[in-house]
Amino acid sequence: MLKLPLELVQRLTPFYAGRRVCVTGGAGFIGGHLIDALLALQARVNVIDDLSNSDGEHIGELVEFDPARLTFIHGSLLDDVSMKDAVKGCDIVFHLAAMGSVPMSIELPQRSYSVNATGTVRVLEQARAAHTRRVVYSASSSAYGEGPEGASASVAPRLETQQPMPLSPYAAGKLAGEHAMTAWSRSFGISTVSLRYFNVFGPRQPADSAYAAVIAAFTKALLAGKPPVIFGDGRQSRDFTPVASAVAANLLAGASTKELNGQVVNIGTGKRTDLIELATLIAQRCAAPGVRPEFRPGRPGDVRHSLADISMAKALLGYEPIGTLETALDSTIAWYREQVATAT
User: Can you give the CATH number for the domain in which 155 is found?
Assistant: First the structure.
């Protein structure tokens, strides 16, 4: 179970207790953790998910445990009937549903863009029809691309004011969703905010896919005694963000009393780690310190460096990162280790 700071729980419970909210993509990795937190804050939650990125096991357990406060709708963002049911009576929509993979978007560019861009418009339209007060959108740091300095320059923190330069269909679709959030807020008066996540990780992140995120993929390989695969030279770096931080950012954005009308906000830690260092940290925790990475050619659409400036998140939302890379890796790897033990 996700653990949020007690002070944050005490501050947010009066706002969420009894309030009905919708979570799109709630059967997914971040969405599932967000639902855990919302239920702990005594909210009433509608979830919509087509289960294309999840087996539905966790959401099924939650529905069975608390059917009075959790309603699950098996449907797509592109199905207006399902979306109408999902947002009915909801004060806030947390929009997390997406095709969340750069490599997959390279293989299926039209589908990726349709789900991530058109799907977001469909969510906004149903939220508008239902008189939903606020939509909190899960955006992506991939929108920045390499930045104006290019891939070879020293890394600089990404600022929300800099020009986006998406390098993949995934990044382009997520950026289009941000623009929709701003346009619908300005045109129709819906309160919206876009949270640009930086490489979120944690327990329950899928590791059994060719598109698995790097920490999940490294951990799966190292627990099996196999070398983790690094695409490129390994000196590319990322701002790895514990899932508890992403959940806290959503909760703070949903509860904020400030005027939110399409702002884009970085959600990260403000610290970066290169992939060789990451592989070493994970290998140590997997009792495989002697296993060296396997290097393969870099992939299209991947950026060289990604690092968040989180000053706006702090000022606008009161956001602070939760935990450190090391402590979050400990709990994440412990969860994967438990899954391996259970499966054998």
Answer: 3.40.50.720
